[in-house]
Design goal:
With 90 residues, the protein is an alpha+beta fold. It is built from four helices and three strands; from the N terminus they run βααββαα. The chain has two domains: 39 residues, YefM-like fold (3-Layer(aba) Sandwich); 44 residues. The protein is rod-shaped.
Length: 90
């Protein structure tokens, strides 16, 4: 991983972005002696963050569905549940 000073990025942003695109390696941005940020490619962002968010949302939805299913079927058979859902009497 390369470390690039924030001043170099400000003065040579195009060059730094080209370097990021060519190598595909994340670039750490330093200010003083501390790392303040990391530049990554859009593909890396998508793989690391958007996919994670989608999986997390999927997990939450499955938990909600399971919870609803557990609460609504309390001792009822599937035929009875369908009849209620469709508005038929018992």
């Amino acid at each position: 991983m390369r470390v690039v000073n924030a001043l170099k990025i400000r003065n040579n942003l195009g060059e730094v972005l080209d370097m990021l695109t060519e190598t595909g390696e994340p670039i750490m941005v330093s200010k003083g002696k501390q790392i303040k940020a990391v530049l990554i490619t859009p593909e890396q962002f998508k793989r690391r963050f958007l996919d994670y968010q989608a999986e997390e949302r999927k997990r939450q939805l499955l938990e909600t569905i399971e919870s609803m299913k557990a609460n609504s079927l309390e001792g009822k058979g599937s035929v009875e549940v369908l009849r209620e859902f469709r508005g038929y009497g018992k």
